[in-house]
Amino acid sequence: MMKEAELIPTQPVSVRERFGIDSNLTVMAFEHAGEYVPKVDPNYCFDPEVTLAILAGFTSNRRTLIQGTHGTGKSSHIEQIAARLNWPCLRINLDGHLSRLDFIGKDSIVIKDGMQVTEFKEGILPQSIQQPIALVLDEYDAGRPDVMFVIQQLLEQDGKYTSLEQNRVITPHPSFRLFATCNTLGLGNFSGLYSGTQVLNHSQLDRWNIIATLNYLDPQHETKIVLSKLPELNNESGRQLVEKMIATAGLTRNGFRAGDLSTVMSPRTVLTWAENIQIFDDVATAFRLSFLNRCEDEEKELVSEYYFRCFGEDLETPTQNYSHSES
């Protein structure tokens, strides 16, 4: 039997102290971290507006959808807030392989008293909504239509789920929370970047209580994140390197918005580039292997020009080793 403190959040937490955001809000957290609580990343940098939106989802049981470009940390934002609230969290990727039966459950043959019998096994959804857990639906705009209409039940005001297979109505646990992340906010593969995404039913989108946008960070914030992930670069030359890398990424993002590029450097790509510099001990080599090689051939000249503008050297020129910490 679970203790009361494990079923509902009972510990008051200051948003200012716990999340470093200038707010007088106090939120409730669970007393202890259980098995499904994500690990805390002590260096994680929170976006204030998105953090407050997600906190509203946790504290006021608001269905919260986070939209934004790939690699900006939409899912990790939810996870890191859950980690600091000791809130169990389960991420499910709504790719094309997740079927309705996987989601709601199906009949399975089991052995009971030495006999084979058919028994209904609950899927991800009914199991989750009966628990004090935050269910995060990743790639929400890639979900199959039959799965999406199941989710629509949970977006109603009372959020109850009718299981026709079990002939019962399931009322969500008081500490069940529902979140989702998506790249396109219902537009489908409009930009050509997100193959496999669907045009979402806008009556369903209208049922989400809160929709927040998390896109590219300002350069100072992005630099701080890279340096927090790779402390060996947190010195004078390392900071200069990271600033040039983020400036290069900024040019690719401008080029993408202008229609000059078909791909773009996300914050995740910048971090991968920085990690690869540690492996290959060369900035240009790491750049080619992290980003340039995924570009179309006709775009590589422009991307090489972006690199030259920020680093003042050609991509073929051996670069200075930045991977060792300064004393």
Question: Overview of this structure, please?
Answer:
- The protein has 327 residues and is an alpha/beta fold.
- It folds into two domains: 4-213, P-loop containing nucleotide triphosphate hydrolases (Rossmann fold); 219-311.
- The chain has 13 helices and eleven strands.
- The protein has helices at 4-7, 15-19, 48-60, 74-84, 100-104, 124-129, 145-154, 202-205, 219-229, 236-257, 267-280, 283-290, 297-311, and strands spanning 11-14, 26-29, 64-67, 89-93, 105-112, 115-122, 134-138, 161-163, 168-170, 177-182, 210-213.
- A hairpin with a 2-residue loop joins strand 5 and strand 6 (115-122).
- Helix 3 (48-60) packs across helix 4 and helix 10 crosses helix 11.
- The longest helix has 22 residues, at 236-257.
- The model is unreliable at 188-197 and 323-327 (pLDDT under 50).
* Major sheet: 5 strands, parallel
- What is the CA-CA span between the terminal residues? 55 Å
CATH architecture of the largest domain: 3-Layer(aba) Sandwich
- CATH homologous superfamily heading of the largest domain: P-loop containing nucleotide triphosphate hydrolases
The CATH class of the largest domain is Alpha Beta
Integer average pLDDT:
85
| CATH topology (level 3) name of the largest domain | Rossmann fold
Shape: globular
Helix content: 25-40%
Radius of gyration from CA coordinates: 23 Å
The total of beta strands comes to 11
- Poorly predicted regions: 188-197, 323-327
Strand order of the largest sheet: 4-7-10-3-11
What is the helix tally?
A: 13
Number of domains: 2
Strand fraction equals: 15-25%
Please write the string of helix (H) and strand (E) elements: HEHEHEHEHEEHEHEEEHEHHHHH
Helix/strand/pairing category = alpha/beta
Organism: Vibrio coralliirubri
Keywords: ATP-binding, Ligase, Nucleotide-binding
InterPro entries: ATPase_dyneun-rel_AAA, CobS_N_dom, P-loop_NTPase
EC number: 6.6.1.2
